[in-house]
Amino acid sequence: MDARVRCAFDALEHRDLHLLENDANERTICARLAMYLQSVFPGYDVDVEYNRHGMDPKRIGVNPARDEELVYPDLVVHHRGNDDCNLLVIEVKKSSNPETRRRDRAKLEGCVEQVKYRFAVLVDLRVGVLPTARRREQLDRVHPPSAGTPPS
């Protein structure tokens, strides 16, 4: 799992450096990343901002003080319409985004606990003109307690 996700990010960095250096819109970056994820997860659907849970809108409890809310994860690797095959959910934040990552972590945890994604990843993607060695993204994995370490 880790190796495939890193391969997709390496392809993004190699082929779409212009987007990263010029701090392009997060959706643009996620759309390109989805292409690379599709190539390393054949047989799965890879979708950007997919908001369905079966046939219904995807709602999860992100904030315990509020009712469930509609969520749009940045990227999902799954089989559409089949929650038994929800493999991976990814939230991407650019380093230029000053917002806290607290809500993103809660969204990922909710997707794992409530929508049964096996793995979740929060990525702080470094943008701007940087030496390649400093651009490496920091993957922060959130696992369900029983999942253990993902297979490579």
List the main descriptive attributes of the protein structure presented here.
five-stranded mixed sheet; alpha+beta; disordered C terminus; single chain; 152 residues
According to DSSP, the number of beta strands is 9
The percentage of residues in β strands lies in: 15-25%
**Model regions low in confidence, pLDDT < 50 over at least 5 residues:** 147-152
Strand order of the largest sheet: 1-6-7-8-9
Main sheet record: 5 strands, mixed
Helix content: 25-40%
Separation of termini? 4 Å
Indicate the structural class.
alpha+beta
Can you count the helices?
A: 5
What's the mean pLDDT score?
Answer: 83
Write down the overall geometry. globular
Show the helix and strand layout.
Layout: H1 2-15, H2 17-21, H3 26-40, E1 45-48, E2 52-53, E3 56-57, E4 59-60, E5 69-70, E6 75-78, E7 88-94, H4 102-114, E8 119-125, H5 132-135, E9 138-142
Parallel strand pairs: 7-8
Antiparallel strand pairs: 1-6, 2-3, 4-5, 6-7, 8-9
